[in-house]
Amino acid sequence: MKPPRDSSRREAGPDLLAREESRLYKALFESSADAILIADDKSNYLGANPAACELLGYTEEELLGCSISDITAPISKESTSANWSEFVSEGKRRGVHYLLKKNGSEVAVEYTAVANVLPGVHASFMRDVTARVNAEHEARRATEMLRDFVENAAIGLHWVGPDGKIEWANQAELDLLGYTREEYIGRHIAEFHADPPVIEDILERLASKQTLQNYEARLRAKDGSVRHVLINSNVKWDGDQFIHTRCFTRDITARKKAEELRAYLGAIVDSSEDAIIGKSLDGKIETWNRGAERIFGYSAEEMIGQSIRRLIPKDRMSEEDEILAKLRRGEAIDHFQTVRLTKSGKQIDVSVTISPIRDASGMIIGASKAARDITEHRATLDSLHRSEESLRALSESLERRVEERTEDLQAAVQELQGFTHCVSHDLRGPIRAITSTSMILREDFGENLPDEARMLLERQGDAAKKLGMLVDELLRLSRIGSQLLERTETDMTALALEVSAESGLDRDPKFVLHIQPGLTANADPALVRLVIANLFENARKFSPDGGQISFGTEETDKGPAFVVRDTGIGFDPAYQERIFEVFRRLHREDEYPGTGVGLANVKRIVQRHGGQVWASSSGPGTGASFFFTVGPSPSQR
Questions:
Q1: If you write DSSP's letter for every residue of 507-541 in order, what string do you get?
Q2: What pairing do the DSSP bridges indicate for beta strands 45-48 and 35-39?
Q3: Dist. CA 267–CA 209, nearest whole Å
Q4: What is the pLDDT at residue 552?
Q5: Cβ distance 604 to 481 under 8 Å?
Q6: Are 369 and 353 in contact (CB under 8 A)?
Q7: DSSP states of 78-124 as a string?
Q8: Nearest to 235 by CA among 214, 209, 213, 217
Q9: Secondary structure element (H or E) that encloses residue 77, with its range
Q10: Which residues pair with 237 in a beta bridge?
Q11: How confident is the model at residue 536 (pLDDT cuts 50, 70, 90)?
Q12: DSSP 206
């Protein structure tokens, strides 16, 4: 049954309906749970419902006449003042806005603003969403913190898709291998593994839903180096769909190198012939190598955990106290020679070097001891000392004998000098007399003498002349041995030119002479002049048909040497060592005259200079070469 119509309200007319609608709107305005603010075109408030007053903490009277900018929080003030006119023209707007409460705190409101609900009148419907906004902010902040943590974690992280391509990597992963994000992401993970079978095994395990824990692998960095890593990884699955891997990459390159170094050092220590022992600061043995087993006779099982004093004789126990005290002060002990005990009780001589062992912080935690058995060495030293005493006695005896021989040699030299004086004075007179007598007889009585007598006188004169030359050469040979050597930088080219000019060799039409320019030597000018003169004269004499004579330098198997070379008669190589002996001649006097002393003088002069002299020839008729060196000067030795 329908309720009866109230005809009185209809009959009351439009004014009554308007009043009732006004009361209804006012009731809705005042009872609304949402805050409602009414503003004019200038954004000044014309009204506020109780919910708005409660939300902001103002009375309605306090809000009337305020501008929207007066209660807008700083975070929203700029957007509010700039957009009010746009809002009025648009007619409607929604969003989140921050307002200032009377107590100064901020409140976040979700609003719907409607322009011109009446001409020039605008309404805002607001709901407090501060808790929600704060929760969203906290969630965003937590997400950002998590993203920052992952992106900047110290351990490398990356995702690999089902196709094996890298989808994401954090900065630590990129830094580990030296790639930029663009160079790394999007490439197949196998490109960065140094061992193809390893990455194949990793991908197969992950595809079969296995989880990898501390899986060792080697990755190749951008610079070509190889990094050792531990990989922890599993796959994110959506049902049976492979989404991506979650890989943690930890760099253990330094640890691997340290392990390799420890293994290397361990092998060295284990193979050392010396005993290498590690001990704590209270003297307990912690390590014991094979060298220690060999020297002391104990196995590692017998000694590790035992006191080092087990190896020390009773009368030397104080040494260990001193050693431990030095180690605690950080002092090393180098080549300390002492005595230690073997397992059999035998005492052996050892040389000990002990160094403190420090931990990563620099604190001394123990000591490394290297001991070498020097028993045989000490015995050898004792034997050497005895030998030295014997040698010293023998040396003293030899010195006495050398002094005696020196005195005898000096006496012989004095006798030789006396003989030289005798030859110089006592033989020259008779030789001159024979020469002059022969000459007078030939000149004064030559016409009256038979031919045979004249021939005998000529032979007598020639023999006396030759004897005089021989005496001169012997005197020269004697003086060379005692003459003071005065070395200086000598122009050997100039000396050769002077000798050739004085002897007429440079003008002899039978010879072509070559003298190398720029030759110098640190030598006695007067003596090396004799060497050059003798060698030039020798080359000229043994080249009866003329030819070429040269003077220069040449690189030989004995080093650089001066050489005088001719194209004369040469000699048999079998005699090349004998031609420098005094009076040694390879030809008869009537074939090639001479005294047999000239080349001996050459050898004596060269030896005085500390040099060498030698000759070479391919055989008779092939010419000869005479080499000599003058040796280093005293300042160069």
A1: G-TTEEEEE-TT-EEEE-HHHHHHHHHHHHHHHHH
A2: antiparallel
A3: 41
A4: 95
A5: yes
A6: yes
A7: HHHHHHHHHHHHH-EEEEEEEEE-TTS-EEEEEEEEEEEEETTEEEE
A8: 209
A9: helix 74-90
A10: 242
A11: very high
A12: H
pLDDT at residue 444 greater than cutoff 80:
no
CA atoms 170, 173, 178, 184: torsion sign: negative
> Average pLDDT for residues 417-427, to the nearest whole number?
54
Structure tokens at 338: 């002492």
Q: Give residue-wise pLDDT tens across range 446-491.
A: 677 777 776 776 666 666 565 555 565 555 555 555 556 788 899 9
List of residues 6+ apart from 478 with CB closer than 8 A: 416, 420
User: Which residues, 6 or more positions from 563, have their beta carbon under 8 angstroms from its beta carbon?
Assistant: 550, 551, 552, 553, 554, 625, 626, 627, 628
The count of residues in the chain is 637
- Residue carrying structure tokens 């028993």: 375
When pLDDT is averaged across residues 30-56 and rounded to a whole number, the result is 87
Instruction: With beta carbons less than 8 A apart as the criterion, state whether 627 and 616 touch.
Output: yes
Residue 628 three-state SS: strand
**What pLDDT is stored for residue 392 in this prediction?**
80
Work out the percent of the chain whose per-residue pLDDT is above 90.
22
Question: Looking at 31-35, 292-296, 309-313, 464-468, which range is the least confident one?
Answer: 464-468
Average pLDDT, the chain: 81
Residues 6+ apart with CB under 8 A from 134: 108
Residue 579, classed as helix, strand or coil, is coil
